[in-house]
Design brief:
The complex is a heterodimer of chains A (142) and B (358). Chain A folds into 2 domains: 64 residues, Orthogonal Bundle (Arc Repressor Mutant, subunit A), CATH 1.10.10.10; 52 residues, no CATH class. In chain A, 55% of the residues lie in helices and 10% in strands. Chain A contains 6 helices and 4 strands. By secondary structure, chain B is mostly helical. In chain B, 58% of the residues lie in helices and 8% in strands. Chain B has a two-stranded antiparallel sheet. Chain B has a two-stranded parallel sheet with strand order 3-6. In chain B, strands 4-5 form a two-stranded antiparallel sheet. The longest helix of chain B is centred in the middle third of the chain and has 37 residues. Chain B is globular. The chains are: A mainly alpha (142), B mainly alpha (358). Chains A and B meet through strand 1, strand 2 and helix 2 of A and strand 3, helix 5 and helix 8 of B.
């Protein structure tokens, strides 16, 4: 997996690390059970402080996407095929999505444009076969 | 003519002159430039000027070395290296200043997405250290130990070495063994550290540049381990006359220099073939990964364009900014410990040599 960050960008580096790993999991490039570099190794490879990578990994751990162990290192805990998410997480995510969509609407983005962007993003993700079939059958995203 | 006294001046002149040719196009004289600016007129102009200036300096210094050798002692001839290196650095500095001035005036990085890319497979599927290439160096060390053990008891307490000095036999033996240990341990140790350090990945072409860097690292590690074996062999050839195995006279006295020269030539050939971080190698896998942006403008971390100082970067070793190789991150305490260890080692050898009257 190629992990790209903008060290001088407006988004904090730890957040960028977390976002890139989430995207890689969604695209199927880091399936459940696959390893990620240790905190020290990723900090060296990106040329950033250990604490920055630690913060990004800790976010992923709190979200249930990453398992951090002394022996096993950083291992992806779940992916698109790991079953439905925790109900509490889904409620929280819906709230954040609503805010994100509201931002687009407030900026004057047309509804068709918003839906188009969502579909393009979803098409890039690696859903398990059963979910993808359900999507194709209903003609709308799962 | 004393080849040993003159050749370092010539070799250093040739190496410093050729450095821009093996450095990646996006790193010109220590200045990071976007890929689309690599062909800017100021860069071409400064490269040509650097070649001419350093070539002239190399020729002048070699002529001076040839003229004074025989009149001056060999160590004094080698001192010409200092003004030669200082003048070459001056040429580098002038080119760097002019390119940086145009870059800053025209704001070359304005509007570009500056990124840093890491390839996680570098850690989950790391390149293997070529342990088998250590065998020649270990074999030479074993041969040296065997010959030394056989010859040592029969030697007189003091022997006359190749320089004509009368020295204790123990000092000669210790210095030869320590020298071989140094070349083998330091070269393999440094390459082990380099294998754990980060690869030079270009943001504009991350997948291909990672592939090229893997091939570059393998080639350079093999060349350096071969160089260690050749350096060990050179030390063995220096020790054999001292241990009274054979005597060399006339041009034959240059024999121990040949393995060192072969090692330097090998390294030069590998560097010319691979380029900085493998930038001259083929490794076209475009399409596997999209361009992630432009390399980050990191000039502020490079003091004088050559010394890397970044306290936030935990890396101990990073790719050299100018030419082929690696350098230390002087913002990291471990790097200073490595430097202190190296200096202490050489100081220790100098003290042993001085105490033995060598």
């Amino acid at each position: 997996m190629l992990l790209s960050i903008e060290p001088d960008g407006p988004v904090p580096i730890y957040q960028q690390i977390r976002d890139r790993i989430v995207e890689a999991i969604a695209r199927g490039r880091q399936p459940a059970g696959s390893s990620l570099p240790s905190i020290r190794q990723l900090a060296v490879d990106l040329g950033v402080n250990f604490h920055t990578v630690n913060k990004g990994y800790d976010l992923l751990r709190q979200e249930g996407l990453l398992r951090l162990g002394r022996k096993s290192g950083a291992v992806v805990r779940r992916d698109a095929g790991s079953g439905p998410p925790d109900p509490g997480w889904a409620t929280d995510w819906t709230g954040r999505l609503r805010t994100l969509l509201a931002e687009a609407a407030a900026q004057g983005m047309p509804a068709t444009g918003i839906v188009g962007e969502c579909e393009a993003a979803l098409a890039d993700f690696a859903f398990p076969a059963a979910v993808a079939e359900a999507w194709n059958g209903s003609g709308s995203p799962p | 003519m004393s080849l040993a006294a003159v050749s370092p001046v010539l070799v250093v002149g040739a190496l410093t002159c050729s450095l821009p040719a093996v450095t990646r196009p996006t790193l010109q004289f220590g200045v990071r430039v976007p890929r689309e600016r690599a062909g800017a007129p100021v860069i071409g102009r400064e490269r040509r000027a650097y070649y001419w200036r350093t070539a002239a300096i190399g020729v002048c210094c070699t002529l001076v070395a040839v003229t004074v050798q025989g009149h001056w002692p060999p160590w004094l001839t080698r001192i010409i290296l200092l003004p030669e290196l200082a003048a070459d650095f001056g040429c580098f500095w002038v080119a760097r200043r002019k390119i940086a001035a145009v870059k800053n005036a025209d704001n070359w990085f304005a509007g570009l997405r500056q990124t840093v890319v890491a390839d996680t497979s570098w850690r989950t599927d790391p390149p293997r250290f070529p342990v088998r290439w250590l065998v020649p160096a270990l074999a030479v060390m074993a041969a040296t130990a065997a010959v030394g053990a056989l010859r040592y008891p029969g030697l007189p307490a003091h022997i006359v070495n190749g320089s004509g000095h009368r020295v204790p036999k123990s000092a000669v033996t210790v210095l030869i063994v320590a020298g071989q240990l140094y070349f083998t341990a330091v070269y393999s140790g440094l390459m082990l550290i380099v294998h754990r350090s980060r690869p030079d990945i270009e943001a504009a072409d991350p997948a291909a540049s990672t592939l090229r860097y893997r091939r570059f690292l393998t080639a350079v590690t093999r060349a350096l381990l071969t160089m260690a074996a050749l350096a060990d062999l050179g030390l063995l050839l220096i020790a054999l006359p001292d241990w009274q195995v054979y005597r060399l006279s006339g041009i034959g006295r240059a024999l121990p220099v040949l393995p060192f020269a072969a090692g330097v030539l090998l390294l030069g050939a590998v560097a010319a073939r691979t380029g900085q971080g493998g930038s001259r190698l083929n490794g076209n896998v475009r399409g596997l990964a999209p361009a992630a942006g432009t390399d980050r403008d990191d000039d502020r971390f490079w003091k004088a364009g050559l010394l890397y100082v970044n306290r936030d970067d935990p890396a101990i070793v990073v790719g050299a900014r100018f030419g082929v190789g690696w350098t230390l991150n002087f913002g990291n305490r471990t790097a200073w410990l490595i430097l202190a260890g190296t200096v202490a080692w050489w100081a220790g050898l100098a003290v042993i040599g001085a105490a033995a009257g060598m």
